Prior knowledge:
By secondary structure, the chain is mainly alpha-helical. Helix content is 90%, strand content 0%. It has helices spanning 2-41, 46-270, 273-276, 279-320, 327-349, 354-358, 373-382. Helix 2 runs antiparallel to helix 4 (279-320).
Amino acid sequence: MIEYALLFGLGFLTAAFLVFLISPAVHRRIVWYTENRLKATMPLSPQEVRAQKDMVRALYAAENARTTQDLLREREKSLSLQLRHDALAVDAGRLAAEISELQSQIGEMHVEAAEQRSHLRKDENYISQLKTNLHIAEQSVANKESELAQMRTRLSKLGEQTDGLRIDLAARETEAESLKFRANALRDERDTLRQDVNLLQKRARDAEQKLTQQQHMVIRLEDKAARDSASAAEKETLLARRQQEIAKLKEQVKAANAEIRKVNRLLRDAGLAKMATEVPAGDAAEDTTASSLDTAALTTEMGEDVRSRSAALADRLQKAKTVTGRDGAIREEIASIAANMVALTALNEGPSSPIRSLLPDAAEKTSGDRVSLADRAAAIIADPQH
């Protein structure tokens, strides 16, 4: 297509160029023929000849201008054709690239067509297999239809059975409704029983709490009784031991007094009356020994009493954390235990104890309703067995 356009453009340009070359000769020849014809037809005067020449010049100038305009138009046309030729060349290159791409695509499509042919052959084989399978399936469908007819007969029988079962179901539903009413009544009874059980459980919990408190109290009392019994047993054993020691000491004192009496009797017989007067001193020593033994037994008993009272006071203080209104009795017990401790210390230290000098006499009493610790301790020292 582009080649034809180029050939057409070149032919047109060559024709225009030939016309441009031939036109002056043709023009001269036309002028010459015209002059000869005019000369042949009529005689010309110099003015007419001059006028005709002017006219011919004018015609020539007009024709020359027309030819120039035609030449310019042809040049413009040739230039436009050249531009179109360049554009067509660019389009031709682009089309050539597209053609190469299309050829490559055609090659790929040939490959795909070969693959499609192979797939088509495979599909044909698969279709043949499907036909055989379809024939087998048709046979199985025929068998299934016969089985379906049998199933329909069975279904009709089952329908009759379902009708009977529906009747039974209606009867069962009526029974179920009656059972629901009974269940609702039983549920109400269960709720009331649950409420009663909850009340009984609350009461049982309260009773269990009270029982645990009583058990803890019993355990504490048993521990206290065990401690008291142990302390009492210790006191009894200690008293028995002290009594045995006192009996032994009394026997020793009696034996010593008997020996002293014998010695005094011998001294009197010998005429030494001055030494015989020392026998009452031996009796006084016997009395002092007995009193010291009694004081030791009393201090031991007082110590055990103070320990037991301290343990009891500790229990009372633990209970007093929750129970109020017994502060006066607790203070009185604390003061009594403190006075017993002071008196016990003074008795253990003996007559030379500095505590005795700090305490007032038992006969003296301080003014006021409140008894001081010193008065209590002095009263206990004056009468330990009280």
